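Reply to dn_fold:

You asked what the input looked like. This is it:
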Amino acid sequence: MAWRVMDYTDDDVDRLLRDNERELTRLAAAAAELQLITGKGESRSGLTTAVVDADGRLQSVVFSPRVLRLDVRTLAEEVVQAVRQAQEDQGRQAQELLAVPQSQIIGLEEIQRQFAEFQDLFGAETAERNDRLRRLGERDPRDV
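and this is what came back:
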């Protein structure tokens, strides 16, 4: 397996730090917004609607007057459907809020490849510095 050596400059490191700071700021703002998300759902028949809070806890259930025609078991199914739909809606909104832009997503193999390149480069640079330090230590101070 051949490795391509990547040169990392101070500008690259600064750019990475700025990108990380921006992402942390975005995530902090998103965390605050997460607490405001409510999900809304409706049963398949449309006779029952539900609202859940940011934690998925039921906040309200509204019944159409036609639910009075339903038996208890069917009414319970209506409520469960509406609540599940509301929870799914809340979860979907949360995922959208926290989503990383598609252009910034890289695969595991690419991450591993970049990390391996960085390790190789760092190892080579460290070995070179250690070798220079060793040579400097071997010099006679009077030669300087």
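Helices lie at 10-34, 72-98, 108-138.
Hope that clears it up.
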